[in-house]
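Limitations

Structures in this collection are predictions, not experimental determinations, and the ligand pose is part of the prediction. Treat each record accordingly. The example that follows, with fe (iii) ion as the small molecule, is included so readers can see exactly what is and is not provided: the inputs are given verbatim, and the output is the predicted complex.
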Amino acid sequence: MSFTIGCHLSASKGFLDMAQTAASIGANTFQFFTRNPRGGQAKPVDPADVEAFQKFSKDNGINVILAHAPYTLNFCAARPEIRAFARETLADDIKRMEMVPGNMYNFHPGSHVQQGPEIAIDFIAETLNAVLTPELTTTVLLETMAGKGSEVGRTFEELRAIIDKVNLSDKLGVCLDTCHVNDAGYDIVNALDDVLEEFDKVIGIDRLKAVHLNDSKNPFGSHKDRHETIGNGYIGADAIKRIINHPTLRDLPFFLETPNEVPGYAQEIALLKSWRVE
Ligand code: FE
Ligand code: FE
Ligand code: ZN
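Predicted complex:
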């Protein structure tokens, strides 16, 4: 398999524009927010844009893409109206993603805010059970979290507990964020093999569908979640080289969410390609 690498792009001009931008910077996939990351109304999906996007992607080798939910949604908030808003947004996003079938949609499980993770896990699973349907072609990914505040998903066990409570769990996968797991206390710098073994033991490696490739501004176990550009943080170039070449990870799609504009992403993609051992 070839290296599948992309970055987070602005969705303001639609799917074709994102695919063209990706191709222009040497990427063969991309991630985007389904709507303003702070929530709010989504622009309707334009079928003509989807058609042009699909043709362009086929001609230019753009692979499976990743949508990201607004990060302000809280699926496990104590207030029912906040949970209801998150659920409605998720349902609407998934419906929109079905217009570009066969892709992936990633979300942050949420923050339990003093309720404790057990109740939160029940709320998150409840939402997924309400929204997932058997005919869905979109794979829905839970993101590994840094454990900032009361974030759920800071351990592999919490993600596994959510998956176990979802009826249509074959629709679910996990997106591993390298900044988040390092901040959460999984030592991907010194013990990558052990972390992946742990992931396999707790969640099952087949669930791992994507990697958010980020360096971290903060040290191991800091629970902060501040992304750094590749090679310039506490994860560092050597660990990132091992991550993109690791036999368990190398065939997954990698998405940069580093603090960059498009030209910076182009440079990082070129750098990562030079580090990739084919
Ligand atoms: Fe995220
Ligand atoms: Fe991420
Ligand atoms: Zn993050």
